[in-house]
Amino acid sequence: AQSLRCYTCQEPTEISRCKTAVVCPPTATVCTTTLHSVETGYPFFGNITVTRACEEECLSYDGIGASRPKSCCYTDLC
């Protein structure tokens, strides 16, 4: 099987600039995007920063009290 490719950025980066593509290790099955800050009010003025990574499984932290919602996807460069 071919390895998954994900966009990654280890430091919080504006979502439109987080475009560094890497080939994930063979054990990774999911690309994750973790939201770090969202301005309230007008979203199109908001500065949304994210970190993105390859991970082995989708562990989401969007339970009660979570401050950093994480989304997961399973296709190349999603």
From TrEMBL:
Concerning SUPFAM superfamilies, the annotation shows:
Snake toxin-like (SSF57302)
Name a single GO biological process. Answer: cell differentiation
Q: Report domain Snake toxin/toxin-like positions.
A: 4-78
Q: Name one GO cellular component term.
A: plasma membrane
Q: Does the keyword Ribosomal protein apply?
A: no
Q: Do you know which InterPro entries this protein is assigned to?
A: CD59_antigen_CS, Ly-6/neurotoxin-like_GPI-ap, Snake_toxin-like_sf, Toxin/TOLIP
Has UniProt tagged this entry with the keyword Signal?
A: yes
Keywords associated with the record: Signal
**Protein name (Swiss-Prot/TrEMBL):** LYPD2 protein
Organism from which the protein derives: Tychaedon coryphoeus (Karoo scrub-robin)
